[in-house]
Amino acid sequence: MSTSSNDIKTTVGIIGAGPAGLLLARLLLRAGIESVVIEAKDREYVEQRQRAGILEQGTVDVLREAGAHERMDKEGLVHDGVEFLFNKKRYPLHFPTLTGGRSVMIYAQTEVCKDLISLQLKEGGPLLFETKALGVDGANTPNPSIRFERKDGSTGTIHADYVVACDGYWGVGREAIPKELCQDYERTYPFSWLGILADVPPSNDELIYARHPRGFALLSMRSPTVSRYYLQVPAGTDAKDWSDEQIWDELEKRCETTDGWKVQRGPITQKSVTPMRSFVHEPMAYGSLFLAGDAAHIVPPTGAKGLNLAVGDVVTVARALKHKVQTGSDDLLRAYSETCLQRVWQAERFSYDMTNLLHTDPNATPFEDKLQIARLQRIVSTPSAETDLALAYTGFPL
Ligand code: FAD
Ligand code: DHB
């Protein structure tokens, strides 16, 4: 890499330091390929942004192979299952039994990002915070470039052999692909998730996905002393409209059981609302430009696939770049979009099904409500249906 003021030359220019961009930089470093990462926000913002919590087995394996596992293996919580709760009864699903030994890990996206940032700053190439990509030029040529602007208003350019846009749903990378070559597939939902962090030990050892006539609730966790809970709320809800007491009352109602078990209350330290969207952008590549993670696809959070899909993309692009450097063949790079989209559509299907299985639709008829319960009943009473869900939840092959 060479830099002269704001004119930078490297092999791979990466836009975005979310989990996708950070992990890609790490994988490329391990493959001996230079990269430069630019990120619009500051380090603290990226490290504190509350999002995903569940890492699939394959994601955990990749982080270990990338040497980004030290703290994860100490602090991450291995989970062997989840429970479904409906009609006031809890139904456990045990993943290792159903999947031949697979499980998931609870280790927050914030912590994955902190670990990768600290490794990148210590061992990797440049990671420039508060540096916003304005656009990608020459995407369809062997010399693509990224125009950027720094916080002080100065502008510059990264000249690269490849650009990977890991800049999330609101990023600029996608715009460099001519509209006539693109197809977007999208669905929005009439509800959002109100998410809280609370300083109280998790009320249950395993995650609980609760279907209730009042709406969906999810009980997750971040550590033995911090709980992460979600409530289905109407789209457009403002988190400030919910008092702490209302949130606990609602969680208690939606998670009521006949066995006397109850959600434990504690101080709420953070509240936010997440809209729900399904979105896929095709193709995920154009010439020397590759899209990875939320820049190319969004899933509704039910089933926890977003971060894991982003990991799948960057593993695929890193492998393809390594293949190109080592053999001169760009076969894998050319297959990138098709390869990723197969996995992406499986995750889209799973997340859509999980969302529809568990959320109450304000417009559903009593007949549709009964069908929803029948679907849940079928899953928890039929080994093949349980296995299908457990295999998808613990992760599609990378
Ligand atoms: P992002 O994390 O969005 O990162 C993109 C980065 O690019 C950002 O840092 C952004 O600032 C930067 N950027 C954008 N534009 C520019 C620009 N022009 N120039 C420079 N930088 C730019 N997924 C799971 O797998 N498991 C879960 O349990 C889970 N739970 C979730 C719960 C919630 C409440 C939410 C909201 C999401 C959840 N997800 C989950 C989804 C997951 O968080 C995302 O899929 C994941 O963040 C995608 O990573 P990414 O790196 O592709 O994108
Ligand atoms: C979490 C988020 C999810 O979307 C999910 O399905 C499970 C857990 C979480 O943030 O812990």
Automatic annotation (TrEMBL):
* Domain FAD-binding per the UniProt entry, residue ranges: 9-351
Q: Name one GO molecular function term.
A: oxidoreductase activity
Q: Which UniProt keywords apply?
A: FAD, Flavoprotein, Oxidoreductase
What is the organism field in this record?
Apiotrichum porosum
Q: Which Pfam families match?
A: FAD_binding_3
- Is Flavoprotein among the key words of this record? yes
* Name recorded for this polypeptide: FAD-binding domain-containing protein
UniProt-listed InterPro entries: FAD-bd, FAD/NAD-bd_sf, PheA/TfdB_FAD_monoxygenase
Give start-end ranges for the coiled-coil region(s): none
- Which range is the signal sequence, renumbered to this chain? none
